[in-house]
Write a structure and sequence with these properties.
- The chain has about 290 residues and is of the alpha/beta class.
- It is built from 10 helices and 11 strands.
- It has an 8-stranded mixed β-barrel.
- Strand 10, helix 9 (about 240-250) and strand 11 (about 255) form a beta-alpha-beta unit.
- Helix 3 packs parallel to helix 5 and helix 5 runs parallel beside helix 6.
- The longest helix is centred in the middle third of the chain and has 21 residues, at about 85-105.
- The chain is globular and about 55 Å long.
- The structure holds ligand C2E and magnesium ion (MG) (3 copies).
- One magnesium ion (MG) binds near residues 59, 117, 149 and 179.
- One magnesium ion (MG) binds near residues 149 and 179.
- This is Diguanylate cyclase (GGDEF) domain-containing protein.
- It comes from Parafrankia irregularis.
Amino acid sequence: YTAKGTHSGQRVYAPDCQLGSRASLGLRADLREALDEGQIELRYQPKVDMRSGRISGVEALVRWRHPTGGLRPPDLFLPEMERAGLMELLTRRVLDLALTDCVRWRAAGATLAVSVNVPASVIVDPGFVDLVRGELELHGLPPSALVVEVTEDGLITVLEKAQRTLAGLRDHGVRVSLDDYGTGLCSLAYLLELPADEVKLDQRFLRDIDRDPSAAEIVRSTVSLAHALSLRIVAEGVETSRSWASLAAWQCDEAQGYFVSRPMTGERVLSWLKEWDDRLRRLPQVGESTM
Ligand code: C2E
Ligand code: MG
Ligand code: MG
Ligand code: MG
């Protein structure tokens, strides 16, 4: 450490090699500003019920409208937000934006549910259930309008607290979704211990099903496993009509991915729903054979 004089005469001790932490201090200040100045935006990606072809809901995906750097995806700023302890603030903001849009869609006749991603660090807060109840009330929405998505990943060390929160959400009528299923360790054990309504099979499992029979078998048997545990299963990252057709044949409940739609703005959702109705008539439904 080097002692440095400052103009106020105080001495501050700073690590000699501090470029990294200085950069991240700057980023933290920017992220606070992002939250304060309304630079947080959402995009929405539809979830399709494969049996009826109906859009059951949309997932809210956060973006940062950087003042000079364009629209930034979550992978570029969520880790730093987590380190800066800003995830609770972010989750509140995302809930507020998502529920506001949800009210708009419903007023226009589209009874969509909205899925919101919530990190483990927020799930362990015993006050989270009350926060959610308060937000729903404030927006005049029923609990069925909201799905909370959690990744099994961060929950490993906080299983009991997570169980309590998730059970509290479900008691209130908010659905719980286990995101990125299959990426964590001991995932099967988690499925049984975490109160949930659905699992989302991580997109990396979908990547090879069109050409690799064992990848296809993993997905097919995971669908059966979920059903044996009375969970709905959602396939993430469905990119091709072939994947869609296989999943439909395997009785997968819901699909999400670029094949259906890329994430879109809240304003676009209503007109997109109309276009989807036209496309739907040409898609294979669940149970139809693909061979
Ligand atoms: P996730 O919740 O698993 O969301 C799915 C991600 O996959 C999204 O990326 C989505 O745009 C992308 N995706 C969807 N369909 C396809 C597809 O067919 N092919 C490919 N290659 N990708 C697809 P995105 O928006 O960049 O989000 C990344 C992750 O950031 C999310 O993964 C989620 O874990 C996290 N995240 C997003 N929004 C929030 C938020 O509001 N709060 C928190 N805590 N995390 C968020
Ligand atoms: Mg998600
Ligand atoms: Mg996921
Ligand atoms: Mg993911």
